[in-house]
Design brief:
The protein is mainly beta. It has 1 helix and 24 strands. The protein is 2% helix and 36% strand. The strands form 7 sheets. The chain has a 5-stranded mixed sheet with strand order 7-8-9-11-10, with no helix packed on it. The protein starts with a strand and ends with a strand.
Length: 294
């Protein structure tokens, strides 16, 4: 008999087992129904295959790793095909999406790369994205990462505890980033400012941003504040609203009114207030002041 994806020898016999056994050459032609997956399997001359499964199958799991029932890595590699998809719903409020790369061979790095515990070969589950929810909760908690490749639409987005908006600027690996310092671009690289009202000002390197754009994973970058309130190094306290520009060692200083009109592109921020706490949320203040980016 050779139909409906079955290759078997002798009579049509279906065996009911609790779980799929390891494949052996003598199994060729057997048909098994497993109670743990509620699926039918047929033994070929090289492995078990799911009866009726398409080349690009879709799988579900409840945990990522551990090898136990319901874990993504517990799916037998012999049953998996290149470009199979998988969705992992963790506790009903976090969802991971994976695609199988049958030729990857990459080192396991959960949740980004997951290796089947059985018959893996070079097969790896590659994370495509994730989405975290706390359903109908107006006071969510936790620190789940939202990884989503696509368009995100929302009427409102609430509860960002950090302040400013950052745009990432690429720099050489040897650059040591000092958050709160003002950086300039000299035509070749980004450097801390060294002079008053210096040409080529990029802005303030921020560690207080709540929204960042332009991030790349393969090169070193500085998050530069482009809007909002940021902790910055200022040479002294000023009256709130005082215009600030670059100074020595990446600090900010008062910008005289004539220069505000003459060099408006060199106005970095306006002074707001001193931060009295040693730590703001989980960030070391180190004597910095709040300024509003212009």
């Amino acid at each position: 008999m050779d139909s409906y994806g079955l290759k078997m020898k002798g009579p049509f016999v279906v065996e009911f087992l609790s779980t799929l056994p390891s494949w052996e050459a003598s199994d060729e032609g057997r048909i098994i129904y497993t109670e743990d997956t509620h699926k039918f399997y047929n033994a070929t001359n090289v492995s078990w295959i799911e009866v009726g499964a398409s080349r690009n199958g879709f799988w579900e799991a409840k945990t990522l790793i551990g090898g136990g029932s319901g874990a993504l890595d517990s799916l037998d590699g012999a049953l998996l095909s290149d470009k199979d998809g998988a969705i992992v719903s963790v506790q009903g409020d976090y969802e991971y999406n994976y695609v199988l790369n049958a030729n990857s061979g990459a080192t396991s790095n959960p949740p980004y790369i997951i290796t089947p515990t059985t018959n893996a070969g070079n097969k790896r589950w590659i994370l495509q994205g994730g989405l975290g929810f706390e359903y109908l909760n107006s006071s969510p908690s936790g620190n789940r990462v939202l990884g989503y490749n696509g368009y995100l639409y929302a009427t409102r987005v609430y509860n960002a505890i950090y302040n400013d908006v950052a745009d990432y600027f690429e720099v050489p690996e040897e650059i040591v980033v000092e958050y709160g310092k003002t950086y300039i671009y000299n035509g070749e690289t980004a450097l801390k400012s060294q002079d008053y009202c210096q040409i080529g000002i990029l802005g303030i390197a921020t560690d207080t941003y709540g929204f960042g754009v332009g991030k790349k994973n393969h090169n070193k970058q500085i998050p530069i504040s482009v809007a909002g309130f940021v902790l910055a190094y200022v040479d002294k306290e000023y009256q709130s609203g005082t215009p600030l520009t670059s100074s020595s060692d990446g600090n900010l200083t008062e910008m005289i009114r004539e220069d505000v009109s003459k060099y408006p592109e060199r106005l970095v921020a306006t002074y707001i207030k001193r931060e009295p706490l040693l730590k703001w949320n989980d960030i070391e203040v180190n004597g910095r002041y709040w300024v509003k980016v212009k």
